[in-house]
């Protein structure tokens, strides 16, 4: 039996679902609101420079299935493999290793002392039973001490989250904030090299077309099933089973639409769940691309800019290091990420110059010698983990998961802090779950069933 499946959203998650279900012979329609596929993983090429529109994206996965899938996807043009080289710009004279606690010996001596003392004091306090705080700001001091909080964690996290850190929770931290053992921190403080964060020590990136070429390739076999410029505005369950999406009938809906938008789209959400969905918080990322002369090239993959004087940028990516084809010969590119809550920063020439000026203050480029600039704002980019995040999300998902034939998936489709590889993996998981359901009549037979009862 063939099922009619609507997929809302043409980012990595939706595209992967479309491909997998179409391979099984199902009748798939994918609706994408934008004029292009790829979601946050889109890229564009401007004057020979490749620009990943939502900031620095790399291919890295711990999921064997995704790694094998990528290898097959790029069988004709293997991806570029890079050893990760990341730094933190502490001040004009100190570009230190990442993570910060493994770089204490590279700091000015007085900062090293403050940080090391803080790490030891925090360690002793925890050993004496200091309870783990529930808010992020207190957690930073509890875990890393006052020096690391002042010199890196607080300024960096305030810059990226645009939020009072005390209003944020800690449930998202595991696996995302590096956790250095005390011995390593002390050795680092004395100047020894300690390894620190080995996660993503090597990554891949497509040779041509930027990060988006992954998703262009995923979409290739299903390009005729994709409707661009179609923002899904209405989804409702049919009384006899199945769904109506913008007037079309389907057996199943796979929604990657951000949960906070769903109450305006999905009929029949319980008021409590709709209210919780509307209160989920997120942040945008504006990405600024600067073409520069090769003399401004650096060997780094990306550099964190924690301090205010370095301008609004929280991270720059040396995108031309990811693939030799990301910039014209003899040129390099630097991409800056600026997060925002609500209104994006100005993307005009003046706005770009302002961001570039911060990078000039940081010694990374010369505003009068840029070869090109480009900018793009992505309003829904990061989940903000406020303190009641989990209870809000659980309320929303409990309601949605109870709706037969509706499957929510994706970074904002389920509000899970997933990179694109995890989105592909979740699509593979859902596909495996749906396979028997759809094969054994989960689909409503086009000829008879499914009419209004
Ligand atoms: C700064 C930053 C850096 C990142 N770095 C990496 C990295 O290095 N590696 C990595 O793998 N991942 C990275 N990610 C994560 C990656 O971008 C996401 O995991 C991935 O794009 C999520 O895919 P998705 O399909 O779930 O959602 P999205 O990419 O957000 O796609 C959702 C799509 O749904 C569409 N849509 C929304 N509403 C509607 C509607 N009503 N109707 C129709 N369409 C709709 C949107 O237009 C969009 O195209 C990064 C993200 C950010 C913000």
Topology, please?
Blueprint (H helix, E strand, L loop, with lengths): L3 E5 L3 H12 L3 E5 L11 E4 L2 E4 L11 H10 L6 E4 L2 E6 L2 E4 L11 H19 L8 H26 L20 H8 L12 E4 L6 H8 L6 E2 L7 E3 L5 E3 L2 E3 L1 E4 L15 H9 L1 E13 L8 E3 L10 E3 L13 E10 L8 H13 L10 E13 L4 H13 L4 E3 L11 H23 L11
Parallel strand pairs: 1-2, 1-13, 2-9, 6-15, 13-19
Antiparallel strand pairs: 3-4, 5-8, 6-7, 10-11, 11-12, 14-17, 14-18, 15-16, 16-17
Helix pairs in contact: 1-10, 3-4, 3-5, 7-9
Flavin-adenine dinucleotide (FAD) binds next to helix 1, strand 18 and helix 10.
Please describe what this structure looks like.
The chain is an alpha/beta fold and 453 residues long. It has a domain at 86-189: protoporphyrinogen ix oxidase, domain 3 (Orthogonal Bundle). 31% of the residues lie in helices and 21% in strands. The chain has ten helices and 19 strands. The protein has helices at residues 12-23, 64-73, 109-127, 136-161, 182-189, 212-219, 271-279, 349-361, 389-401, 420-442, and strands spanning 4-8, 27-31, 43-46, 49-52, 80-83, 86-91, 94-97, 202-205, 226-227, 235-237, 243-245, 248-250, 252-255, 281-293, 302-304, 315-317, 331-340, 372-384, 406-408. It has a seven-stranded mixed sheet. Strands 9-2-1-13-19 form a five-stranded parallel sheet. Strand 6 and strand 7 form a beta hairpin. Helix 1 packs parallel to helix 10, helix 3 (109-127) crosses helix 4 and helix 3 runs antiparallel to helix 5 (182-189). The chain is globular. The relative contact order is 0.20. The model is unreliable at 444-453 (pLDDT under 50). The chain binds flavin-adenine dinucleotide. Flavin-adenine dinucleotide is lined by residues 8-14, 31-34, 39-41, 54-55, 57-58, 231-232, 256-257, 265, 285, 337, 381-382, 410-413, 418-421, 423. Flavin-adenine dinucleotide binds at residues 8-14, 31-34, 39-41, 54-55, 57-58, 231-232, 256-257, 265, 285, 337, 381-382, 410-413, 418-421, 423.
């Amino acid at each position: 039996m063939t099922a009619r499946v609507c997929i809302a959203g043409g980012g990595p998650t939706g595209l992967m679902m479309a491909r997998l279900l179409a391979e099984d012979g199902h009748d798939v329609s994918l609706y994408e609101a934008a004029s292009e596929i790829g979601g946050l993983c889109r890229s564009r090429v401007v004057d020979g420079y490749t620009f990943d529109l939502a900031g620095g994206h790399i291919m890295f996965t711990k999921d064997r299935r995704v790694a094998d899938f990528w290898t097959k996807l790029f069988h004709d043009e293997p991806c570029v493999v890079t050893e990760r080289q990341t730094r933190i710009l502490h001040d004009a004279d100190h570009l230190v290793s990442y993570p910060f606690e493994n770089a204490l010996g590279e700091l000015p001596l007085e900062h090293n002392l403050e940080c090391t003392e803080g790490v030891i004091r925090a360690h002793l306090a925890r050993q004496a039973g200091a309870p783990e705080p529930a808010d992020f700001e207190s957690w930073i001091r509890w875990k890393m001490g006052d020096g690391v909080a002042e010199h890196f964690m607080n300024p960096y996290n305030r810059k990226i989250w645009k939020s009072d850190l005390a209003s944020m929770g800690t449930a998202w931290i595991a696996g995302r904030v590096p956790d250095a053992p005390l011995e390593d921190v002390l050795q680092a403080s004395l100047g020894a090299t300690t390894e620190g964060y080995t996660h993503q020590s090597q990554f891949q990136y497509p040779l041509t077309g930027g990060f988006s070429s992954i998703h262009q390739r995923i979409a290739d076999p299903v390009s005729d099933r994709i409707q661009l410029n179609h923002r899904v505005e209405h989804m409702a369950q049919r009384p006899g089973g199945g769904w109506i999406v913008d007037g079309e009938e389907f057996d199943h809906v796979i929604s990657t639409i951000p949960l906070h938008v769903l109450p305006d789209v999905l009929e029949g959400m319980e008021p409590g769940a709709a209210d919780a969905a509307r209160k989920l918080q997120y942040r945008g990322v504006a990405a600024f691309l600067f073409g520069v002369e090769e003399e401004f090239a650096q060997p780094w993959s990306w550099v964190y800019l924690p301090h205010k004087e370095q301008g609004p940028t929280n991270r720059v990516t040396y995108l031309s290091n990811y693939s030799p084809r990301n910039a014209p010969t003899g040129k390099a590119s630097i991409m800056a990420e600026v997060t925002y809550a609500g209104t994006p920063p100005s993307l005009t020439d003046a706005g770009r110059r302002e961001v570039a000026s911060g990078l000039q203050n940081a010694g990374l480029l010369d505003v009068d010698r840029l070869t090109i600039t480009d900018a793009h704002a992505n309003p829904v980019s990061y989940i903000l983990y406020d303190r009641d995040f989990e209870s809000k999300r659980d309320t929303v998902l409990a309601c949605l998961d109870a709706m037969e034939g509706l499957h929510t998936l994706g970074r904002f489709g389920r509000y899970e802090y997933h990179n694109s590889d995890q989105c592909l993996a979740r699509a593979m998981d859902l596909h495996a779950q749906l396979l028997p359901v759809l094969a054994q009549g989960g689909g409503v037979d086009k000829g008879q069933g499914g009419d209004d009862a």
